Amino acid sequence: MTKIKPFKGFFPKDKLGAEISTNPISAYTKEEIQQLMETNPNSFLHIILHDEKEQKMDLKERFAKTKQLFEESIENGNFTQSGSDSFYVYRQSSQENTYCGIIGGAFTGDYQNGKIKRHELTLSKREKLFTKYLTQTGFNAEPVLLVYQKKEALSNLIQKTTISSPIHDFESDDNLRHELWEISKKEDIELIESNFSEIPNIYIADGHHRSASSNRLSIQNKEKESTQYIMSLLMSDEDVHIYDFNRVIKNSEELSLEEIKSKLKQEFVILEESKSILSPKSKHEFTLYLFEQWLRIKLIREFDSNSGIIEQLDSQIITDSILDPIFSIKELTKDKRIGFVPGNKGLESLQNKVDNGKYDIAIAMFPVSFNELKLIADNDLIMPPKSTYIEPKLRSGLTIYKF
Fold first, then answer.
1. Which residue(s) pair with 364 in the sheet?
2. pTM of this structure
3. CA triplet 239, 118, 198: central angle to 5 degrees?
């Protein structure tokens, strides 16, 4: 069983959702951040990044300033707080996809006992930094994305909620529509809590470092109940979208097309060659773009019951059977000859990375399934770097959990 709780969330004042909330900082270039801060005085970026002249502050001073600016923003009326402990339904939609889930507090005790399951490695340095941020600012402005196995009662409640008028409904600059509803009725809250109590495990889809940092905060403040929960967007496994995470590399060995094909044939069969874009059609199939043409290849070897779970992941196969033996690329997070392109950008974007001369070869893989992610997490294993790109990506500053 897993435990989640409602909270008195802060959210932008009516009609200010689009102005205040932002994409995660990592989604912007430095130039985009500067432009947003210059053109939008209400952007949440002003609270978390401050003005350029203040960048020489040490971390403690900067985090204290962030706390001060948020408190001032509340006093100035830019943010309003729910009148009672509530859950929130968030929906993000585009022309291609719609994502919808429940925002609430996930119990850190479930993280500690393994009911909130992980599949990515976290860095202690980043955990400690964000824990300091949470400790000194006293709030969390960006939910972790957690995934649970679909429950009909929760889906029905979400559907019922979204029929009513939202407290926020706006379109962001990236043409995504964002809607937010409040669930405050006692019977609805009890339904959500009781249904999650029947779910044995939930899975971190996005936000491993934020989850780990919130857990550190809870351990440091065991007597303070509000720190024992991680603000999370909880979504059904049928509602999230796991994209492929593709590779682009430099051909530093200066191998010819025929040399590369000869080396590939040691572990793969070449199924198709084309001047047009080719996509992998199933697990253990890959497509490569090089020398202005596409290859679709399939792994020859088969796996049995003795094969390791990670060994069978396509992201690991790319490293073990292509990057390492052919191009001597072993350390994905350190080698400057490799880059990564999320699958939501499309294979055209992947091809362009090669055509513009920055890289020489693109490698596309079939997306990881939720069942594969679940299997890895259930076995306490860690996925190779950049194995999945999961949507939705959540807004910062749309719902805020204050400790």
1. 287
2. 0.92
3. 60
